[in-house]
C-alpha cells in the first residue's frame, strides 16, 4: 500500500489578478480553492494515475473538513488525525505578473497527536511505500521525518522525502528511496548558486553520498536531473507547453516518478519520463493533471 503524510495540509486559494499592488486594494478576475499540501497533492495525482493510496497527516477545523471532502472526492482514502483545536491553513497563491505565495503556519500539533500518527505508521508492513512531504507546523522539531524513518527502519518500506533544509538533511542517514529537492532548495542546502548542470550534479552527489538512494532535482521549466541508485545520471527536458499554474507541479512529479517506477518494475528512465510529464502536465493546467494529460505529454 502507498501512504502519504502531510503534516500541514492546506486549502490553496489561487487568485488571478491583472496586476498586484502592495499597499492597495487588489481585485481578482478569477479565483478558486483547492485542497493542497504536498503529500495530499501526491496522493491525488497518484490516484489520478490509478494508484490507490491513503493520505495521512493532521487536519483541523472547517478548513480541514473541506480538505477531507476534496481528498475523498478525488478517490483517495484518508485517515487524517483530527486535531482538537485550530484550523488547517489557507495558503494564498497570487498569480499576476509573477507568482507570489503566502503559506500560513498551520495549527499546533501536540505530542498526543503525533503519537496517534505513530500508531498508524506502526501498522505499515514490508513492501509498503511512504511519502513524507512538505513543511511541518511550528513547534515540531526538524528531526520529525527522521524520527519516523528511525521508527520504521527494521521494515522494508520505501520512503520518499520531499522537504527542505534540516528536515531533509536529517533523514539522509536513514537511506530514503528518493528525495526531490528543486534546484533552489539544493542551492540553499549548500548555500551557493549553481552556474552549470555539473554544479547541480555535484551537489546532488553529495546528498547521495550522505545516504539518499535516488536524488531527483527538479528545475521547473528546465526539466530535471536524476542521480539513480545505480550511479547513472539522467537528464530530461520539459515538453513544450504554456505555464498556467505551477503549484503542485513538484508533487505531481513525485507521483509520476513513483507511478512510472512501479509500472515499469524499476526502470529509472521510465520513472523520470513519467515524473517530468506529470510535473509539466500539472504546470500546464489550472490544477493537478489526470492520466490522459500526462500520457499525452509522454
Ligand atoms: N514552467 C514550466 N514548464 C514546463 N514544466 C514545468 C514548469 N514548471 C514546472 N514544470 C514541471 O514540473 C516539475 C517540477 O517543477 P519545480 O522544479 O518547479 O518543482 P517544485 O519547486 O517542487 O514545485 P512546487 O513546489 O510548485 O510543487 C519540473 O521538473 C517540470 O517537469
Ligand atoms: O508550506 P509547505 O508545506 O512547504 O508547502 C505547501 C504548499 O505550497 O505546497 C503545495 C505545492 O507543492 C501546495 O499545495 C501548498 O500550499
From TrEMBL:
Pathway annotation from the record: Carbohydrate metabolism; D-tagatose 6-phosphate degradation; D-glyceraldehyde 3-phosphate and glycerone phosphate from D-tagatose 6-phosphate: step 1/2
EC primary class: transferase
Keyword ATP-binding: yes
One GO-annotated biological process of the protein: small molecule metabolic process
SUPFAM superfamilies xref list: Ribokinase-like
UniProt KW Protein transport keyword: no
Reaction(s) this enzyme catalyzes, per UniProt: beta-D-fructose 1-phosphate + ATP = beta-D-fructose 1,6-bisphosphate + ADP + H(+); D-tagatofuranose 6-phosphate + ATP = D-tagatofuranose 1,6-bisphosphate + ADP + H(+)
Pfam families noted in UniProt: PfkB
Any one of the GO CC terms: cytosol
UniProt cross-references to CDD domains, sorted A to Z: FruK_PfkB_like
Domain Carbohydrate kinase PfkB: from-to ranges: 12-284
This protein's UniProt keywords: ATP-binding, Kinase, Lactose metabolism, Nucleotide-binding, Transferase
Protein EC: 2.7.1.144
GO terms for MF: 1-phosphofructokinase activity; ATP binding; tagatose-6-phosphate kinase activity
Family the entry assigns: Belongs to the carbohydrate kinase pfkB family. Belongs to the carbohydrate kinase PfkB family. LacC subfamily.
PANTHER family reported in the protein's UniProt record: 1-PHOSPHOFRUCTOKINASE, 1-PHOSPHOFRUCTOKINASE-RELATED
The protein's role, per its UniProt record: Catalyzes the ATP-dependent phosphorylation of fructose-l-phosphate to fructose-l,6-bisphosphate.
NCBIfam families: 1-PFK, pfkB
Name under which the protein is recorded: Tagatose-6-phosphate kinase
Amino acid at each position: 500500500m502507498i501512504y502519504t503524510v502531510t503534516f500541514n495540509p492546506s486549502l490553496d486559494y489561487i487568485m488571478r489578478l491583472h496586476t498586484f499592488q502592495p499597499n492597495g486594494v487588489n481585485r481578482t478576475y478569477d479565483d478558486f480553492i483547492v485542497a493542497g499540501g504536498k503529500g495530499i497533492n501526491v496522493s491525488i495525482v497518484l490516484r489520478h494515475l490509478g494508484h490507490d493510496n491513503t493520505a495521512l497527516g493532521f487536519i483541523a477545523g472547517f478548513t480541514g473538513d473541506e480538505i477531507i471532502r476534496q481528498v475523498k472526492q478525488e478517490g483517495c482514502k484518508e485517515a487524517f488525525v483530527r486535531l482538537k483545536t485550530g484550523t488547517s491553513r489557507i495558503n494564498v497563491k497570487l498569480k499576476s505578473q509573477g507568482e507570489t505565495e503566502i503559506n500560513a503556519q498551520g495549527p499546533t500539533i501536540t505530542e498526543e497527536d503525533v503519537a496517534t500518527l505513530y500508531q498508524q505508521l506502526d501498522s505499515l508492513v514490508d513492501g509498503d511505500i511512504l511519502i513524507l512531504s512538505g513543511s511541518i507546523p511550528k513547534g515540531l522539531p526538524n528531526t520529525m521525518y527522521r524520527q519516523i524513518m528511525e521508527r520504521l527502519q527494521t521494515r522494508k518500506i520505501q520512503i520518499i522525502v520531499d522537504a527542505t533544509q534540516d528536515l531533509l538533511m536529517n533523514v539522509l542517514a536513514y537511506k530514503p528511496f528518493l528525495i526531490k529537492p528543486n534546484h533552489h532548495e539544493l542551492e540553499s542546502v549548500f548555500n551557493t548558486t549553481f552556474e552549470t548542470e555539473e554544479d547541480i550534479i555535484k551537489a546532488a552527489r553529495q546528498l547521495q553520498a550522505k545516504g539518499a538512494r535516488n536524488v531527483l532535482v527538479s528545475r521547473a521549466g528546465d526539466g530535471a536531473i536524476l542521480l539513480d541508485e545505480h550511479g547513472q545520471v539522467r537528464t530530461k527536458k520539459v515538453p513544450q507547453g504554456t505555464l498556467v499554474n505551477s503549484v503542485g507541479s513538484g508533487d505531481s512529479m513525485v507521483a509520476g516518478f513513483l507511478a512510472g517506477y512501479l509500472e515499469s518494475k524499476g526502470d529509472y528512465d521510465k520513472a523520470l519520463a513519467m515524473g517530468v510529464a506529470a510535473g509539466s502536465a500539472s504546470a500546464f493546467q489550472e490544477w493537478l493533471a489526470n492520466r490522459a494529460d500526462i500520457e499525452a505529454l509522454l
